[in-house]
Every structure is written in C-alpha cells, then in structure tokens.
Specification:
Elements: E1 2-5, E2 10-24, E3 29-44, E4 49-61, E5 69-81, E6 89-95, E7 99-102, E8 110-114, E9 118-121, E10 129-134, H1 161-174
Parallel strand pairs: 1-2, 2-3, 3-4, 4-5, 5-6, 5-7, 6-8, 7-9, 8-10
Length: 180
Amino acid sequence: MSDVSQPGVVGEGSLARSVVTRVNLGESRLGPLVLADVRTEDVDLSNAHLDFETIRRVEVIRSRAVGVRLRAGEVSDLSVEESRLDYASLHFERVRTLVVFRDCSLREATFTGDLSNVLFLDSDLTDAEFDARAARGLDLRTCRLDGVKGWRTLRGATVSADQAVSVATLLATEIGLTVD
C-alpha cells in the first residue's frame, strides 16, 4: 500500500506480510487489529486511536504519530525508528520480545503496562511519564530524560551513571523526600 490518504478512517482487521509507505491515517480509529510481518515508512498516524491485539515483527520507519493513543495486547519484535511520537499514549499489555525505539522524539509521551525489554536508543523522552507494571530490561541509557516522571515504577530499568545523578532530585521528590 502506498500514497494513500484516508484521515479519520474507522476499521478493524489484520495486516500481514505487507509494506505500507506514504499513508495518512491521522485521526483514525482502528481496532481490534493484528499486525504481523509489516514494514511501514512515512506513515502519519497523528491523533489516531489504535487498538492492537497483536504486533509481531513490525518496523515503523520515519513516521509521525503525534498524539497517537496506542494499546497493544501482545508485542513481539517491534522496531520504531526516526519517528515522532510526541504526546503519544502507549500501553503494552505484554511484551514478549524486544521493542526498540531508535532516534525517536517521544516528548511528553505516556508509557504504561509491561515495559520489559523495551529499549530507547538515542531518543528524546523529555517530560515523558511512565507507569510501568514491569520494567526489567527497560534501557534508557542513551536517551534525553529531562523532566521524566514515574521513576518509582521503573524497577529493573537501566540508566547510565550520569543519568542517575541527573534524575536523583526527581526521584527523591517522587518518593516524598524534600531536597534542600
């Protein structure tokens, strides 16, 4: 599928073994959906509401999903690269294998649910908020973390030593300490 513009579309179903390029589905309401073996490039999902039962072996490249509301039941091998997901709300019910966000802007995004084995590589998480049910294997070492909230829910996550020092005040405030 290529060069399609259908903002505001409503639908459900599955997409498998497909390449989707230059598609505008902004403000759409899609779900329940199943994606398997799909590559998307230059897709606009801004302000869309997406409800996935399954995401398996999916690549999202150079796409825009500002303000997207995404819920995924089960996620395996999801890669999001060079994409803009500012103000997004992302909920993963169960992460089975790796989820990777590489070179993404996720400013003021909200992440909830199972964040185990989620890697954020060279991404901007400024003012993002986390409410993780599980976070073992969550990797934030190469990201910008200014103003991140929800540190107390990230037990098992990995940050660099420099990041740990820079977020110490935020973490202390979250757990009720007064920093003077």
